[in-house]
Amino acid sequence: MTFTAPLPANEDQRLATLRDYRIMDTAPDERFDRLTAFAADLFDVPVALISLIDADRQWFKSHYGLPVSESPRSISFCAHTILDDEPLIVENATEHPQFRNSPLVLAGPGLRFYAGVALTADDGQRIGTLCVGDNKPRNFSDDDVTRLRRLAAIASDELELHRARMEAEASVNAQNAANLLKSKLLSSMNHEFRTPLNAILGFSQILELNMGKRLGREELEYVAAMKTAGENLLRISDSMMTMAQLEAEVVPFGTETVSAQSLIEEVYALHRPAAALNGIAFMRRACISAATLKADHSHLLRILGNFISNAFKFTALGGEVTLGCATEDGRVTFFVEDTGCGIAADRQREAFQSFNRLGREGSTVAGLGLGLAIASRLAQAMKGEIGFESRESAGSRFWVRFPAA
């Protein structure tokens, strides 16, 4: 009788399942090593293995008491074990008709005793074994078989946990690669997009500044409309690029000491002209204390700028927008209040979602719905808090909060 095990009928599927674990030839893992050490101690044997049966070899994920990490499948006892759900017990190999002529018995380790239980995957495929061995014959009771089955079940569970970790890591790596590729693609597109757009904006400014005496009122209105449209496209391009970089986690963040009141004055000065153009009363509320915070100055400008731009968009002619800050309990809070249309209660949970215009998709208000999403991502990346309060037809108050320095 030959000692080489036949191939299982489902060998191709079994090997495919084994590959899914991504465990072959991986580094030693103490979770598996603890199991084999415990098995050797429990059964008082010198060798305990977690063996995975590949196409032409058996590879040991853990090998207690054995100096090698693999051996040919053709001489493997474990290759017989995976043919059945029942344990394979060989109490004295020299007297066993199937194994007495095995090289493992006649030479090598001089194997005499073997007991193994198949390791079964979630899909029912038997991919390997937990086994124990000795170089002298042994008796193995029914209670011993039960204990070995329990240890094999634990080993199978550990294999499933390993597979889950590998799948999670692969998913994260794939997502990171996709985000990086998207960032590079958008960066390239952004460059190709901005070059002609900047030329259009430049020429429109030349027409406004130098050609006013030659252009009629209607022509100047066309030039102004072209310039406004170009500036809107430029803002959209910048927003899409920023969001792609945030998703790919390639946005740089610095840390510096920022004066809260100086930031309010700077933001107010930047946005005051736009408020005048929109016919909006833009006010600022000074900080009571000389508060400072540690944050990225440019990103703070972007967050508050997005709050203000959003307020201007949804506040009617003659409305009010207020920029301010407050300090309390060691924290600095910046806020932007408006008397605009507010956000419907059933849409408020979507306020910081990307590409969400909160029910105003059909309106004439420009934008893609990225401003608040970008503000949220930037605030969270700087360990800040962000939120808002809003009532439909009564206005909104958006705020961002950081620990004081």
Automatic annotation (TrEMBL):
<feature type="domain" description="Histidine kinase">
    <location>
        <begin position="188"/>
        <end position="405"/>
    </location>
</feature>
<protein>
    <recommendedName>
        <fullName>histidine kinase</fullName>
        <ecNumber>2.7.13.3</ecNumber>
    </recommendedName>
</protein>
<keyword id="KW-0808">Transferase</keyword>
<dbReference type="Pfam" id="PF02518">
    <property type="entry name" value="HATPase_c"/>
</dbReference>
<dbReference type="InterPro" id="IPR036890">
    <property type="entry name" value="HATPase_C_sf"/>
</dbReference>
<dbReference type="InterPro" id="IPR036097">
    <property type="entry name" value="HisK_dim/P_sf"/>
</dbReference>
<dbReference type="GO" id="GO:0000155">
    <property type="term" value="F:phosphorelay sensor kinase activity"/>
</dbReference>
<dbReference type="InterPro" id="IPR029016">
    <property type="entry name" value="GAF-like_dom_sf"/>
</dbReference>
<dbReference type="InterPro" id="IPR003018">
    <property type="entry name" value="GAF"/>
</dbReference>
<dbReference type="InterPro" id="IPR003661">
    <property type="entry name" value="HisK_dim/P_dom"/>
</dbReference>
<dbReference type="Pfam" id="PF00512">
    <property type="entry name" value="HisKA"/>
</dbReference>
<dbReference type="InterPro" id="IPR004358">
    <property type="entry name" value="Sig_transdc_His_kin-like_C"/>
</dbReference>
<dbReference type="InterPro" id="IPR003594">
    <property type="entry name" value="HATPase_dom"/>
</dbReference>
<keyword id="KW-0597">Phosphoprotein</keyword>
<dbReference type="Pfam" id="PF01590">
    <property type="entry name" value="GAF"/>
</dbReference>
<keyword id="KW-0418">Kinase</keyword>
<dbReference type="InterPro" id="IPR005467">
    <property type="entry name" value="His_kinase_dom"/>
</dbReference>
